Amino acid sequence: MSYWQDKILPAMIDRGMRNDVMAEQRHRAAPYATGRVLEIGMGSGLNLPLYSPEKVTHIFGLEPSAALREKANEMLDSTTIPVEFLAAGAESIPLESRSVDTVVSSWTLCSIPDVEAGLQEIRRVLKPDGRFVFLEHGRAPDPAVAAWQHRLRGISRPLLGCDLSYPMDQLILEAGFEFPQLETGYLKGPRLISYHYIGQAKPI
């Protein structure tokens, strides 16, 4: 792994995930988790204080970056829930099939190189009555914005670790889910990165 991906990019991700808009919206995912929880892309553990000890029994924190897992380890004092870190990517989740009640993703799907494989893994590890709770940005419905999102993929992925153009609702549906709850729209910020998909999906 390059120095950029190993050191610089994790520091940028940690700092970027602490901005005001994300802080305002973060409560719209993790607090809805119940039972055994898998958080994909745990990052520096900013969601940990938001999980309810009354509702959540165990948290698996999936995070391929050693630097971000180290940061997340510093957040363990913010929760009384047992946390187990998994050093892996979403395309190959080291958990048994149908073993978790909730999968949580906060601004993570955009960073998965093979997002289709990642979503199939999420579906695999979820119990049949489980829920996938997500808070993601992605492809905007405005053609001009979407065109620029597509053009910038070649820059945003290597430099930021993020694909701006994923149509999140379509990808989740195609992976074998349905939406009991879905909200879409622009949040504060540049339109290239501010169109969001927020909701819950269940396997079908």
What's the story with the biggest beta sheet? 7 strands, mixed
Q: How many angstroms separate the termini?
A: 37 Å
The tally of structural domains comes to 1
Q: Name the helicity range.
A: 25-40%
Quick structural overview:
The protein is of the alpha/beta class and 204 residues long. It is built from eight helices and seven strands. Helix 4 links the parallel strand 4 (100-106) and strand 5.
Describe the structure.
The protein has 204 residues and is an alpha/beta fold. The protein has a single domain (3-203), classed as Vaccinia Virus protein VP39 (Rossmann fold), CATH 3.40.50. Helix content is 33%, strand content 27%. The chain contains 8 helices and 7 strands. β2 (56-62), α3 (66-73) and β3 form a beta-alpha-beta unit. The longest helix has 14 residues, at 3-16. The protein starts with a helix and ends with a strand.
Keywords:
single chain, 204 residues, alpha/beta, Rossmann fold, 7-stranded mixed β-sheet, 33% helix, globular
Present the secondary structure layout.
Blueprint: H1 3-16, H2 20-25, E1 35-40, E2 56-62, H3 66-73, E3 83-86, E4 100-106, H4 115-125, E5 126-137, H5 143-151, H6 153-160, H7 168-174, E6 177-186, H8 191-194, E7 195-203
Parallel strand pairs: 1-2, 1-4, 2-3, 4-5
Antiparallel strand pairs: 5-7, 6-7
